[in-house]
Each structure stands twice: as C-alpha cells, then as structure tokens.
Amino acid sequence: MTAGNVGRYYRGFWLRDSALRDDVDDDLVRFTVKAASGAVPIATLSGGNQQKVVLARWLALKPKILIVDEPTRGIDVAAKAEVHQLLARLARDGIAVIVISSELPEVLALADRIVTLCEGRLTGEIARSDASEERLMRLMTLRGSAPEHDVSRSDRFSILDA
C-alpha cells in the first residue's frame, strides 16, 4: 500500500517502521481490505482486496484525477459493490474519477457523464440521466457516423486531434 509513497517514511537513511505500519493498518480499515495484517503479501489476497490495495496505493499520493481501467474485472459481486462505493465516495470528495469499462451496468452506476468510442473514434457524449444500455450500445457500435454529443463540429475535431 505504501510503495508509491514510501519516501515519506524515511528519516535520513532510516525507515520509520511504526509510522508505515500505522498508515497501512489505517488503510486496511479505510478501504475495508480483508487481510490478517498489513504484512500479508498482496498476492495472497482475493482479487477484490488486491484491487482495493492498489487503489489505496495510488490514493496515498493524493491525486486530483484517478483513472481506473476495468476496475472490477474478475472480482466477486460483493467486492465489486465495495469498489463502486469507494469510487463514488472519491468523486464526492472532489477527486475526478475517470472510469474505463466495458460493463454497461458499471458505467451507468458510476458515471455522471459518459463518452463512447468505436474503433478509436468519439461516437457520443451523454449525461447519465440520458443514458440507457440500448443507447450506449448504439453509440458504441457507430462506424463512420457523426458523433452524438453537445459540442460543435469544430470542437469535436480539436478533441480528436489533441
């Protein structure tokens, strides 16, 4: 959990073990990681707990933007709900969370605004309130059609060319 921010635990050449252990123990509780202790190797944890440890590791850096790609792939339903709650809490706390997901229910549950792509091209940008699985599927399979969103044509090309 501390790998991305381990420098803060050093005083000169000495590692402050107690501060590191205290922060790891706090994060185990904060992120509801089910582990016997903070010394347990991450590889021995379940997939959902591994996901939460990775999130805790990046959040220790206090990012303004967090990009997660398929954040719940391969984890059980209970762990998926916990990760969704965590991502929603982060967004409420002011962190911009960008979720990349092929799971439409996940997108509809987490996103305030949804951008769809097909073959690397922007095909739509809609608010969650206007989104449905059917509409998203249609936008995700547009090929060579004009994008469906609220920006002008010139803005679209500057977005694509950026």
Descriptive notes:
It is a single chain. This protein has 162 residues and is an alpha+beta fold. It is 41% helix and 17% strand. It has helices at residues 17-30, 47-59, 77-92, 104-110, 133-140, 153-161; strands at 10-11, 14-15, 65-69, 96-100, 113-118, 121-127. The chain has a two-stranded antiparallel ribbon with strand order 1-2. Strand 1 (10-11) and strand 2 (14-15) form a beta hairpin. It is elongated and about 55 Å long. The two termini are 34 Å apart. Residues 150-162 have low confidence and may be disordered.
Coarse morphology: elongated
Percent in helix: 40-55%
Radius of gyration: 19 Å
Strand line-up across the major sheet: 1-2
Count of helical stretches: 6
Number of strands: 6
